[in-house]
Amino acid sequence: MATFPSPVVDATALADDASSRDLLARILASLDDDKAEDVVTIDLRGRSDMADYMVVCSGRSSRQVAAISEKLVDRLKQEARRSAKIEGKETGDWVLIDTGDVIVHVFRPEVRDFYQLEKMWMPTGARVPHGA
User: Fold this and answer.
1) The pTM is what?
2) Which of 5, 33, 37, 102 shows a CA-CA span of 20 to 30 A to 79?
3) Which domain CATH number covers 105?
4) pLDDT tens, 75-99?
């Protein structure tokens, strides 16, 4: 006879997954509104305990990188009642936004090409869309 996992555990896991997907959708909408370029979403579920998703994108200048990041943090606070840790906004080369379930990296294109963060996290054989 087959055994099934406890429905309580499954319901909790599904709720957590839905919550992180909702947060991801809000983040992607914000990045789109602010004209972030070359947006790549990496699914980390089952691969890392630090977050469910990673989003990597570019802004055309340090000023745009800082603005994209600041607006994202403000929108998450206002619309989703979600606080986020932000680092690197002062220089605008590479800003990291940690929301817990989703980690967002906003780069200037040259800095993004240098670090090639997507190559470290993309599944084996996956193609990095922005040509890094």
Assistant:
1) 0.81
2) 37
3) 3.30.460.10
4) 999 988 888 999 999 999 999 999 9
